[in-house]
Write a structure and sequence with these properties.
The chain is built from 19 helices and ten strands. By secondary structure, the chain is of the alpha/beta class. The chain folds into two domains: 3-235, 3-Layer(aba) Sandwich (Rossmann fold); 266-498, 3-Layer(aba) Sandwich (Rossmann fold), CATH 3.40.50. A five-stranded parallel beta sheet has the order 2-3-1-4-5. The chain is elongated, with a radius of gyration of 26 Å.
């Protein structure tokens, strides 16, 4: 791996015994500060060759730290539930809350390395996957998740020998097996070489790799303890430290300022489009039948459908979703109404609550409001700093790309009406008893910010309408037209992807 592995890294028993009490005290003090702050999470990626001591290091950390805020996250071969969703779903599902520490055995590096070592992925694909990991880890760091990436390094021959010795006496000590598919010396050596390449490409300012010489157990444990202490102290700093930023699109100010007016996409729509009642009923039934047939097909079982509904208040999202609901098997779809995040959700990266709701393949998820709140209401209302919502466009594109790569059709709709039509619908809701629950004082207040939302929608569509997850702008002044356009678009997308 590295020439330094050929050097002696040893710590005698007396030296370890002398440093351990102070190290333990410092670790507990720093962890108590992290728990009290409840602002950041630490994920410890514990990796290395089998036989390098991952199990022993895990137990040492449990002995040194407050185990009540420590959780072990172990990932082996995907379960049926995990295989039914995108590859990263299981890591998002288990994300610890702020103030907690997660120790990860079998991280997102495992599959990338194992496929490359086994010859299933060439170097080009290997590099592309590592670049995606860099973006993922950068996003976690900016959302308050600090990564401590440890590789317990040992000469491949010695690691094999040590692992064989452990396997010979399994009752004496539990064995942490991460690379059971690689048994020969040649394979272990290739893993060592692939890991070295991965370190070079994924050791970043936000999430650097720490190579821990593991031949001497006391030296290994002391170095891991020091690294854990540094991570805890870094995570409890008052402000997130600056790091070199990757190239990104020009950031927008919190409110449009300007020299020239921002062109509005919504202003280009034809709000006179309409359907008469007879045509509407015929078209609605036709498109519902197409959706039923397509989502019931054998090919749909290998993918899935994710629909995102955004739009002006009173634009008709709920009634459109109802018409879509009529076309779907109730056993295989779910509508997720999205409101302000809960305390549990605020304690994790903003995409966490959406990742948890990704359906199994062969199922449908409908989001009534969505992850686009970060670049809409959070931007306009000033809930999120400019730097955070500006970077969200790229993070959302990555998220939707992963969904598409996993076989999901992502259909996104903005239902648009004019300010005049919105006022008319608000007034109707005030006078009709069974519609009154839909109207709040907040809805009236938001009307004053119509130009800001208009600019935010234009930026959102420009930056996140991709070939794998395009936006469809829906003229919703006439509800019949809007419903048929949405259902036709969904049926067309499904037909193109699975027919």
């Amino acid at each position: 791996m590295f020439d330094s592995m050929k050097l002696e890294h040893r710590l005698d028993k007396a030296a370890f015994k002398a440093l351990e009490p102070k190290l333990r005290e410092d670790l507990l003090d720093a962890q108590a500060e992290q728990i009290a702050g409840r602002k950041r999470t630490i994920l410890v990626l514990l990796n290395g060759a089998d036989g390098a001591g991952k199990g022993a290091v895990l137990n040492q950390l449990y002995g040194w730290l407050d185990a009540r805020k420590l959780v072990t996250l172990t990932y082996e071969a995907p379960t049926d539930e995990e295989r039914a969703r995108p590859a990263m779903w299981r890591y998002w599902r288990d994300m610890p809350a702020n103030g907690e520490i997660g120790i990860v055995l079998g991280s997102w590096y495992h599959d990338v390395l194992s496929r490359h070592v086994a010859g299933k992925d060439d170097r080009e694909h290997f590099v592309v996957q590592l670049e995606a990991i860099n973006r993922f880890e950068r996003m976690l760091w900016r959302e308050g998740v600090f990564l401590l990436k440890l590789w317990l390094a040992m000469d491949p021959e010695k690691a094999l020998s040590q692992f064989s010795a452990l396997k010979a006496h399994p009752a004496e000590r539990p064995i942490v097996t991460e690379w059971s598919e690689f048994k020969s010396r040649k394979q272990v050596k290739r893993l060592d070489e692939a890991a070295t390449e991965a370190f070079r490409l994924t050791s970043t300012a936000e999430a650097p790799w720490i190579i821990v010489p593991a031949a001497d157990a006391r030296y290994r444990d002391a170095m891991v303890g020091d690294a854990m202490l540094a991570a805890l102290r870094r995570a409890t700093e008052p402000e997130t430290p600056d790091v070199p930023a990757e190239p990104s699109p020009p950031q927008q100010p919190a409110e449009p300022v300007a020299l020239l007016p921002t062109p509005s996409l919504l202003a280009t729509l034809d709000y006179t489009l309409a359907l008469d009642d007879n045509t509407y009923r015929t078209r609605l039934e036709q498109e519902q039948a197409r959706i039923t047939r397509l989502t019931s097909s054998r090919r749909f079982r290998d993918g899935g459908l994710i629909c995102v509904f955004e739009g002006s208040d009173a634009a008709g999202k709920s009634s459109t979703i109802m018409r879509l609901r009529e076309a779907l098997d109730p056993r295989r779809f779910r509508v997720h109404p999205i409101s302000a995040p809960s305390d549990e959700e605020r304690a994790r990266p903003y995409l966490w609550r959406f990742w948890r709701s990704i359906p199994k393949r062969g199922h449908v998820a409908v989001f009534d409001r969505s992850w686009y709140g970060r670049v809409l209401v959070e931007r306009v209302e000033g809930f999120t700093p400019v730097a955070e919502w500006s970077r969200a466009y790229g993070e959302i594109n990555d998220f939707e790309h992963q969904l598409n790569e996993a076989g999901y059709v992502v259909a996104k709709f903005w239902l648009a009406i004019t300010p005049e039509e919105q006022a008319r619908r608000f007034q109707e809701r005030e006078t009709v008893g069974y519609k009154r629950f839909k109207l709040t004082p907040e809805d009236w207040r938001n009307r004053a910010k119509w130009p800001l939302y208009d600019a935010a929608v234009t930026d959102m569509v420009d930056r996140t309408s991709t070939h794998y997850a395009p936006w469809t702008l829906v003229e919703a002044e006439n509800k019949r037209w809007a419903r048929v356009k949405v259902l036709t678009t969904i049926a067309d997308r499904l037909e193109a992807e699975i027919a």
